[in-house]
Amino acid sequence: SRYFTLTDYPTGLPRRELFALETQELPELGPNEVRIRNHWLSVDPYMRGRMSGIRTYVTPFELGKPMEGGAIGEVIESTDAKVKVGDRVSHMGGWRDIAQLPAQGVTVLPDHDVPEQAYLGILGMPGMTAWTGLNRIAECKPGDNVLVSAASGAVGSLAVQLAKAKGCHVIGIAGAAHKLAWLESVGVEPVTYKDRTAGELSDAIQLASPEGIDVYFENVGGICLEAALSQLNEGARIAVCGMIDSYNAEKPAPGPSNLSQLVVRKAKMQGFIVADHWSNYGYFLNEVAPQVAAGKFDYQETVKEGLESTPEAFLALFEGGNTGKMLVKLEG
Ligand code: NDP
Q1: Which of 54, 192, 309, 323 yields a CA-CA distance of 20 to 30 A from 202?
Q2: Which ligand 1 atom minimizes the distance to the CA of 45?
Q3: Contact 216, 242 (CB under 8 A)
Q4: The CATH fold of domain 2-121+299-329
């Protein structure tokens, strides 16, 4: 098996050299274990939080030990009665080509007519995050004016489409021109944050949504939050999903200068962690998977080839290198 380890905890944007590719011979399977040939690896912004050496809501990566992450693969050996050779499964043994795990830590993929890697993106953790943040945290309802930051990413791209499907007016913030074009293609008002101050971004949001913002789905922080706060309607709800703008910050970023807008607009701001809502995953799949299979939602992905490219794929998340879900495809 070949796998990545982290050799030190980074400050700032991690350097490529911090990721080491190692090889090990796997032992024979113990009872109720499976061996999986990974086809697809997920890289996600939350992994940066596991590189800090400090326990937050996920335990940090242990230096020198195999890194972990979402992955999809095929069972090639099994000593478990329920998970069989040939089953396609999702599990957390990513950042490696062959994973060996207790069978209870793997989930056999459901039988929807979608590509298997969709279970790392639109029908996996990011999709479930979009659905939870929009419906359960922001309590989005038809007719709301909905603003989403990092709107063309894995979470954002489903959040905007779910809001559109509900009959909302949706504004999406993203960087590059091709991302803005994609947003427009799914009926979203595109707004770029590049080369803009918070004030300029706020003006652009106002132009795109003259009737203000009722729901803000926050993925970024920084100037996106400041601009959103200044466009809130009375009783607005902000679902704080993430703040990627600060994940590589070496010093804490200053708070938005206009946080008092929450008072004036009688708005509500709530953070959430998708893992706490996992008991709803079945509802989410029942609702969203048939629509994905029917082509109702546009599912974008950015694919890097080969295990060696995993660190680059991860680092590119912080530079806008992905439209939709960032994935690594393994050969064989
Ligand atoms: P994305 O697919 O959205 O990838 C990250 C994107 O963020 C980039 O493509 C880039 O798009 C944008 N971005 C990166 N840095 C900045 C910056 N400094 N300012 C503005 N935009 C930036 O990632 P995910 O969809 O997987 O995750 C989105 C957010 O959701 C993250 O904050 C993540 O931590 C959070 N999350 C939270 C979960 C929870 O349980 N609370 C679960 C899953 C994700 P662009 O080119 O537009 O700049």
Answers
A1: 323
A2: 34
A3: no
A4: Quinone Oxidoreductase; Chain A, domain 1 (3.90.180)
